[in-house]
């Protein structure tokens, strides 16, 4: 991210603008293009007064029309009942982490255990203000958040509050655009961009007075149909020249167009990396739900049945992996809907406590059954209605599923009528209640209709169901729709192709798709969806072969990558848990030293994420080898408490751990390295990490071989470190010189409260 420049000059001079409508429009375009200070072409500054309901001078009726238009667009939106504290205080972040840049949104939540890195917050009403008296407001701001966390809701709330004069009072005009709107254009000029938000600008002449502060909002960069390419985009400074939309956005962000305009972009984290950090002035992140907010969300879903909301909460808490994902608001509501339906579908008094979904695929299968809405199905009874719905659901998967699958492969998450027609989707089918549970329809500013799945994971589920069913009859590779083979390739060949592509996808975009594809082979899921989405017993004979195929994907790499951990998630979805269970038993009995294969390492990394015991403290004591530890380094970053006692670790291992503790992604708060073989060199490596680490609060180094030099290195680090509160150097050889160095460091350190 680029550093904010110091404010050095006063405001630009202001003149009186032209009075004709054409001249007023030209004045706005010139202003946005950065020409507002050139003589008399600059319109006069708008006078804001507290007496206006919109925060503007009541005589400026044209500006009020724009604000009224924004309020009218927001009418009836349930998400505008009032922003939650989660959306009124955003996290200030210093940039994107490697995890955010490279991994699927689910992986980001699971790896960080549903938590967020400690960060400063900034209130919504100060989002675009300077952070200090000597800085200037940000020109380019980015707000990131995983799919379903509430980015669009945040934008709509901000625009609504601005139109009512409650936030962003320094902005004379806000121009909200979504990439769903921009995707409808092949080419667009900066001039037309303004008119697309407020079509009446050209008729009435929007600007009779200067608009010195304008905010352009670009919501949903991850939905842009063409990735932004800042290295190969030709510069354009002419606001009337029509260019490709992605080139237009790139030039606006670079400041070639509208250099005086503030720009706010929202995006999923991975795609936000398309914008070079040197162009970004401020980055914020929307956090997910806390435990209390999960509870409140479920209570609001079932306001008249507290017993049901309590039951759903207990079921969610019973499975840590599902509970972590419920920190994402959209997922929490989806899980609540599915579990609420499950509870209402009990077969009778003897089933007072129905079985709880233990996997993603089981949960989404219940959601699909809820979408079907057939009570007869839940009671195990056939009915003509159920047969009709089953036929309709198969037809939906055959058409809508193909659209979802190819959209996923091509990174396409918003669809238009031409896309639906290209994939043979029956537009009449989209009016059904079944599709309404999966697809959301929105009208764009260009009067066309955009469709997207209500959550990314639903697109992945429907895509997996399509692939599962289509694989039994396809005579070509479903990913490329080429390479015809006869006889048919068979399900196992298609599954192997999907697994290979998922392992090769550097951004992890096929990870959850592969989980769902594996989960559809689970007997429970097949029983749930038999007759509606799947054929009874379809592909069930392949379960053992698929489990073997998945485990064969775990190669002896140096480090356990996120793709390898995802294979364990796939085995869990398949209900093939033998591998994870054997490693968990070894952890509990202290027998990890005997498990050194790549499959065991991947299973150990998986357990570090999902095990309740590892959440409290990851205990990897008792002769864990250097090789195993080295392969786990990417996963250890996110352990809150890490115990590595009695492993005979020497100084080279401390170099590795020092690199972990120095990483900006590091979330380790407590680490114990007692009873190893750490000497001065290893202590110095740990000391270097303490100079930059901002998460560690407790470090236990007792019973090692640290001497006076190692103690001095740690003492020097304590003079700078501001987070460590506990340090144990008991049973080392630091001697008087080392103790004196540590004592001197305490004079400068104000956070260390326990020293042993």
Explain the overall architecture.
Residues 1-59 are annotated as: Disordered. It is found in: Cytoplasm. InterPro entries: Leu-rich_rpt, LRR_dom_sf, NACHT_NTPase, NLR, NLRP_HD2, NOD1/2_WH, P-loop_NTPase. Keywords: ATP-binding, Cytoplasm, Leucine-rich repeat, Nucleotide-binding, Repeat. This protein has 756 residues and is of the alpha/beta class. The chain folds into 4 domains: 21-285, 3-Layer(aba) Sandwich (Rossmann fold), CATH 3.40.50; 289-344; 384-538, no CATH class; 640-756, Alpha-Beta Horseshoe (Leucine-rich repeat, LRR (right-handed beta-alpha superhelix)). It is built from 34 helices and 18 strands. Strands 2-1-9-3-8-6-4 form a 7-stranded mixed β-sheet. The longest helix has 26 residues, at 384-409. It is globular and about 80 Å long. The two termini are 40 Å apart.
